[in-house]
Design a protein that fits this description.
single chain, alpha/beta, 6-stranded mixed β-sheet, 16 strands, 25% helix, globular, Capsule synthesis protein CapA domain-containing protein, Metallo-depent_PP-like, Capsule_synth_CapA, signal, CW_Biosynth-Accessory
Length: 398
């Protein structure tokens, strides 16, 4: 995608952002009318001259979501419609796609003799425990503003080596970059890079993903990068990227931790610190399916970075409050006084999953739906009240 096309794709959905924050709509969730107010003096993100990154938690397309998509002519698109302006607003948007999107691949990793015409058939395209999503999800993610997809996760090998290959092909066809898995026989890098506009000249950002496990499934070709026990190690890979004069900043997106735990474990904490010490500007985690805290880390050379241990579920059909509450995390990348590209402390727009008769399962900013107050309160308790921002705040930003 050309730089101009990328800019147009990012700007068009923003036209609706200010309205989405304050104007009721009968076509979406039960939108809450927002009162007017002054803009914050310093939102903390979208600073002039900085590049703003958005990241989300798990896109986990359970059976119910796939069934909803199969029943609609526009497939998965309505599930993301209410967050599209908020994803497109950033200069770079990264999501974790938890599971393959492998066209025509059966459980066990064999190619089907004929790919089903439906988005969900419970044979080729399935939900838990071994996922496979219709590859049309890739085009939907591209259209709602996603740029980079993290493909290293514990379900990455749910359709075997062929599933990894076809997932990467589907993402590439949609114009999306990927990180954390690679096709058989390529031997290419685990990371991907994106060039971002920034004061003092543009900057090249490397995004590296890894996973704690592939659920014990065979990984004969080493197609998924392991967060622990890989050779070279993840910190070594970060160190090499940070030392590359062509790369200005490194982001690590690990799939790690304990499911449904509100606190990071020791392995997460150790890898987070090792990553920042090795040169990562920020660490943004996934997998626990619930929000976990954000921590700022100062490296031994004085650099400041942060770790968001888990952004929870972005889209799923898990309905307990902590599991239906997620966040779009925003943070600015900008040059410091020494010319280094560093990550500034992040802010979070709280999201919530709901299911509507007319739309199926959707993800929306929690502040825009009548049931969202509980999710906002939960996110403030986990992330810190000062880190949580509103749709009105974003409408005020540059």
């Amino acid at each position: 995608m050309s730089g101009t096309a990328h800019l147009i794709r990012k700007l068009i959905p923003f036209c609706a952002l200010a309205l989405a924050a304050c104007v009721p709509s009968g076509s979406g969730p039960d939108v809450v009318a927002r009162s007017g107010g002054s803009c914050p003096v310093d939102l903390g993100v979208f600073r002039p001259g900085a590049a703003t990154v958005a990241a989300t938690g798990d896109v986990l397309l359970h059976r119910l979501i796939q069934e909803d998509a199969a029943a609609r002519p526009d497939g998965f698109a309505p599930a993301f419609a209410h967050v599209a302006p908020y994803l497109s607003r950033a200069d770079l948007t990264v999501v974790n796609l938890e599971g393959p999107a492998a066209e025509g691949v059966l459980p066990g990793g064999r190619a089907a003799s004929e790919a089903p015409r439906s988005v969900f058939d419970n044979r080729v395209y399935t939900g838990y425990p071994q996922f496979n999503y219709h590859p049309s999800i890739a085009g939907v993610l591209d259209r709602v503003g996603v740029d980079v997809v993290q493909t290293a996760n514990n379900h990455a090998l749910d359709r075997g080596p062929l599933g990894v290959d076809r997932t990467l092909e589907a993402l590439a066809r949609a114009g999306l970059r990927s990180t954390g898995t690679r096709a058989r026989g390529t031997g290419g890098p685990w990371h991907t890079t994106v060039r971002l506009p920034m004061s003092g000249g543009s900057a090249t950002v490397a995004i590296l993903a890894c996973t704690y496990s592939v659920n014990g499934l065979p990984n004969p070709n080493g197609q998924a990068l392991m967060c622990y026990g890989s050779s070279p190690s993840v910190p070594s890979l970060i160190r090499g990227l940070a030392a590359d004069p062509a790369i200005d900043a490194v982001l690590l997106t690990p799939h790690w931790g304990q499911e449904y735990s509100a606190r990071p474990d020791g392995q997460q904490r150790r890898l987070a610190r090792a990553a920042i010490e090795a040169g990562a500007a920020a660490v943004i985690g996934a997998h626990p399916h619930v929000l976990q805290p954000i921590e700022e880390i100062v490296a031994s050379d004085g650099r400041r970075g942060f770790v968001a241990y888990s952004l929870g579920n972005f889209l799923s059909s898990q309905w307990a409050l902590p599991r239906r509450t997620g966040a779009i995390l925003y943070f600015d990348l900008a040059r410091d006084g020494q010319g280094r590209v560093v990550a500034h402390p992040p802010r979070a727009l709280v999201t919530r999953g709901e299911r509507y008769v007319s739309q199926g399962v959707v993800v929306a900013p929690a502040a825009t739906i009548s049931t969202g107050g509980a999710s906002i309160a939960h996110a403030r308790a986990v992330l810190g009240e000062a880190r949580v921002i509103s749709p009105e705040d974003l409408a005020c930003a540059r």
